[in-house]
């Protein structure tokens, strides 16, 4: 089973690559430069039918399957050793129904593709913070972006999907059709099949939105952070915010005296009228001496691409881990400040994300995602260069994560920032809570042989 492309023939409209094909190494490369896996075959699908043929082929020959959407999964789940990789990067079409305010988004599209199709009509659906992240992987484990405060997680805006299940069957899933499957894909990740098309709800917003981004030196300490925490308390339904710890790059956009210094940015987006947002968020920009301030009204698409250059694909080695926090007391803020101060790499970021608002509305059993009552998330996004630095950076991330464990919201973690998923079944049990058993049963119904196992794997119920 070293080379199924040569042993058996897979006939699809798209290209089928094997290890000695031209383009094989480019096709297996993903965002995290640490990942170096070698699938026996890469199926570069062009249509739902291609996906169905590939899955039927994998089923006939019992090959495990990995799914590549945008290739951003930090654990590298898009690519597997010795199995079949379904590459959807050639399926990125997005069509908008302006009257119904909906978008149909192909399974390999990125958020840039969605914004490009919807913003000319003054419409949005909440996406992630980086424009070349895949819609599919980000959405299927929840999807957290700037607009969550008003419009919820990405899964809360999902109306239906077209999905090819392990048996090669093409199905639709929505509240009305295959409702169990629709429930499971709203949080359960890539465990249930290959999504070839999403249908999303769109909302009127833009083109201009207000982006707030004052940058304070880390040695300003906790005071601005406490203000930010208290300020958001009655605005979590309008402001999506992220307090991000970083190291100032040697870049002329920053004052020279700040180069190499540790800072935090109070980044926030007002999901509504830009002028109103500027007024409402002004107090966040008046918290005393700051390094610089990148705030201002901004085109929504520009905002969505603002951080892309910080996170280029294939350049850095990465390990990201998170906790939902059960609160952000003064003591927790102090602990975070102490923890981030010893970051080994200047490229790493750590962030505190606010929740509440529309994110908190759905009941825990309404979607597979589970409990929505977490008030904050702390994510540690370690990013560095050189294999010789792996141990120091991964070790630092794990230590800080362990240190924050006592403040965890019931041991739950955002499954798009799970490290390498080392906690295994316990992580899923804690994160999905009462939904876990139902997910295992649905997995047993649609993927009893666990064909889709390169993910946060939900084992089929016995
Ligand atoms: C630079 C960067 C920025 C990020 N920003 C955010 C953010 O703002 N908000 C946020 O919530 N997350 C964010 N993430 C995390 C991101 O959501 C996850 O890494 C996610 O897995 C990426 O999806 P993808 O399609 O690009 O990944 P891939 O690596 O292509 O896929 C990951 C997994 O998703 C599943 N999958 C992918 N496509 C399909 C499909 N069509 N059908 C079924 N399953 C599929 C598979 O299980 C696959 O293994 C970010 C990650 C990076 C690297």
Describe the structure concisely.
The protein is of the alpha+beta class and about 450 residues long. It is built from 14 helices and 20 strands. A hairpin with a 4-residue loop joins strand 5 (about 95) and strand 6 (about 100-105).
- Overall average residue pLDDT: 96
Structural class: alpha+beta
Query: The CATH topology of the largest domain, please?
Result: Vanillyl-alcohol Oxidase, Chain A, domain 3
Sheet bearing the most strands, described?
9 strands, antiparallel
Question: Taking Cα atoms only, what radius of gyration do you get, to the nearest Å?
Answer: 22 Å
Give the SSE layout.
Blueprint: H1 4-7, E1 16-17, H2 24-28, E2 41-44, H3 48-61, E3 65-68, E4 84-87, E5 94-97, E6 102-106, H4 111-118, E7 123-124, H5 135-140, H6 148-151, E8 158-164, E9 170-174, H7 179-185, E10 194-201, E11 203-204, E12 208-212, E13 214-217, H8 223-232, E14 239-247, E15 262-270, H9 274-281, E16 292-293, E17 296-299, H10 300-305, E18 317-325, H11 330-340, E19 349-354, E20 376-384, H12 390-404, H13 424-432, H14 436-446
Parallel strand pairs: 2-4, 3-4
Antiparallel strand pairs: 1-2, 5-6, 6-10, 7-11, 8-9, 8-10, 12-15, 12-17, 13-15, 13-16, 14-15, 14-19, 18-20, 19-20
The chain binds flavin-adenine dinucleotide.
Flavin-adenine dinucleotide (FAD) binds next to strand 3, helix 5 and strand 10.
